[in-house]
Amino acid sequence: MVKHIVMFKLSGDADFRLCKARSFKDALEALPRQIECLNAIEVGINQNPNECWDVVLTAVLESIDDVDVYAKHPAHVAAASIISNCKVDRACVDYVI
Predict the structure, then answer these.
(1) Per-residue pLDDT averaged across 28-33, rounded?
(2) Sign of the torsion angle spanned by Cα atoms 33, 38, 39, 44
(3) Could you give the CA distance from residue 33 to residue 29 in angstroms, rounded to a whole number?
(4) What distance in Å separates the CA atoms of residue 9 and residue 42, rounded to the nearest whole number?
(5) What is the pLDDT of residues 38-50, one digit of tens each?
(6) Residue pair 16/86 in contact by the 8 Å Cβ criterion
(7) Pairing outcome for strands 55-61 and 2-10
(8) What's the CA gap between 85 and 61, in Å, rounded?
(9) What is the distance between the alpha carbons of residues 40 and 3, in angstroms, rounded to a whole number?
(10) DSSP string of 12-52?
(11) How far is CA 89 from CA 39, 86, 95, in A?
């Protein structure tokens, strides 16, 4: 199994970032019902104003190849488009569990 952890930094004022983060979270949390290889996903919105990351997701997939399938799936691409106009940074780690 692979754990796929991604953090996103968004641009805009706090209200705008929170609105985008909530929409993004809702879309991501719907993905396990749409992408067969996605075993689970957890999405959090940062509550600490002293930190610079806005959203974090942790996904569990069977293999590193499945991470690529997940990334290219139309439902995932649609979810990612929610923040495409305000994403300023992204950090990712994929590791075997």
Answers:
(1) 98
(2) negative
(3) 9
(4) 17
(5) 999 999 999 999 9
(6) yes
(7) antiparallel
(8) 27
(9) 10
(10) S-HHHHHHHHHHHHHHHHTGGGT-TTEEEEEEEE---TTSS
(11) 26, 9, 20
Residue 40 region by backbone torsions, left for phi larger than 0, else alpha for psi between -120 and 50, else beta: beta
- The closest of 85, 27, 34, 77 to 57, measured between CA atoms, is 27
pTM confidence score: 0.95
pLDDT at res. 9: 98
Q: For residue 68, which phi and psi values (nearest 5 degrees)?
A: -65, -40
- Gap between the Cα atoms of 4 and 56, Å rounded: 10
Tokens coding 62 = 């069977």
pLDDT digits (tens, 9 = 90+) for 48-86: 999 999 999 999 999 999 999 999 999 999 999 999 999
Question: What are the structure tokens assigned to 14, written together?
Answer: 């706090």
Q: How far is CA 42 from CA 8, 31, 85, in A?
A: 14, 11, 23
